[in-house]
TrEMBL record:
This is ATPase-like protein. Gene3D superfamilies: P-loop containing nucleotide triphosphate hydrolases. It comes from the Bacteria. Pfam families: AAA_28. Residues 6-167 form the NadR/Ttd14 AAA domain. InterPro entries: NadR/Ttd14_AAA_dom, P-loop_NTPase. It comes from Sagittula stellata (strain ATCC 700073 / DSM 11524 / E-37).
Length: 178
């Protein structure tokens, strides 16, 4: 089952969501980034768990949402591509002073062994109302995730800085879905 769950992670603003939209347009099951969904919910609500207000609360919600996403994805057929996920949320929670990564994740490996990582790409990075941090913070987050993936024994496969169509082809070839 876990081999069907393909995690796409890496630098914030590196083109993950655009790549997932292109995969969805080709008919693949995709799961949107928990963080973006939480920010939208929080901005429509009381805003207490926004990452720039309370990172621990935000990351805790991201862990819970990522677990719900994994449960829901078990009912989907074929490969399922995740825009960030449980590992990202656990890394953020640990960085915010929460429990260690392995304590949050448990022993189970929930994604495919090979994780697709988008590198820092300053030419396409853009902040917005939901992404208030700058490129330096995004790059630091990227390296925390890459380090965590290594500590977890995941294989990191960097997605090249090429056009969206070329990235889709790379992802599908890498996952054997193309």
């Amino acid at each position: 089952m876990k081999d069907r769950f393909i995690l796409l992670t890496g630098c914030s603003g590196g083109g993950k969501s655009t790549l997932l939209e292109a995969l969805a347009a080709r008919g693949f099951a995709t799961v949107p980034e928990p963080g973006r969904r939480i920010v939208a919910e929080e901005m429509a609500g009381d805003g207490r768990a926004l990452p720039w207000v309370d990172m621990t609360a935000f990351a805790g919600r991201a862990v819970a949402m990522a677990r719900q996403d994994l449960d829901a994805a078990r009912h989907l057929e074929g490969p399922v591509f995740f825009d960030r996920g449980l590992i990202d949320a656990a890394v953020a929670l640990e960085h915010a002073g929460g429990p260690p990564l392995r304590e949050t994740l448990g022993a189970a490996q929930v994604y495919a062994q090979e994780v697709l990582v988008v590198p820092p790409w300053p030419e396409i990075f853009a902040g917005d109302g939901e992404r208030k941090h700058g490129f330096d913070a995004a790059e630091q987050e990227h390296w925390r995730i890459v380090e965590a993936l290594g500590a977890l024994g995941q294989t990191v496969r960097e997605v090249p800085r090429v056009s969206v169509a070329e990235r889709v082809a790379f992802v599908l070839a890498t996952c054997g879905a193309g």
